[in-house]
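anyone seen this seq b4? input:
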Amino acid sequence: MRKLFYQLSVLLVGVLFVSCGTHKTIAYSRSEPVCIASDLDGSYTLRVEGRGRNAVDAYEETGKQALYAVLFTDVSWPNGPRKKIDSVFLLKQRAYEQNKAYFDNFFKDGGDYTQYISMKEKRDLSSIYTRTNAQTVCTTTVCVFKSQLEQRLISDGILK
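predicted toks r here
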């Protein structure tokens, strides 16, 4: 009886050690921005992933990634195909390259991009952080004020 108890204990401890390992491969995969909602005021709510050397950098990066997705890429909708948020508003990659100095200044840490995003509309504790030795990945919800951003780009001469 003791021998059986000892064998089961060793087996249980072995299973616990194997199953409690961290799965770090998740932090290295990339997920695409997903548009969760579109409001009548011209804002879009996206679920975005940001990467940084720590949690604060990764959290700030999510705002930049949300704006970049609205400006330059197609955004997927939940359970739907990838499509453009607004085909007139979507800038081409060529526009980014032609105005690289403008966008580098716009997207710098603490730059003007912060005026056109909000992270206050998300649910409490909805941000997911994954950490590896090299980086931290934050997945959170970001609201992008597209109509205000569009006015800014028109006044700065980027959009016509």
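The chain is about 35% helix and 20% strand. The two ends are 83 Å apart (CA to CA). kinda curious what u guys think
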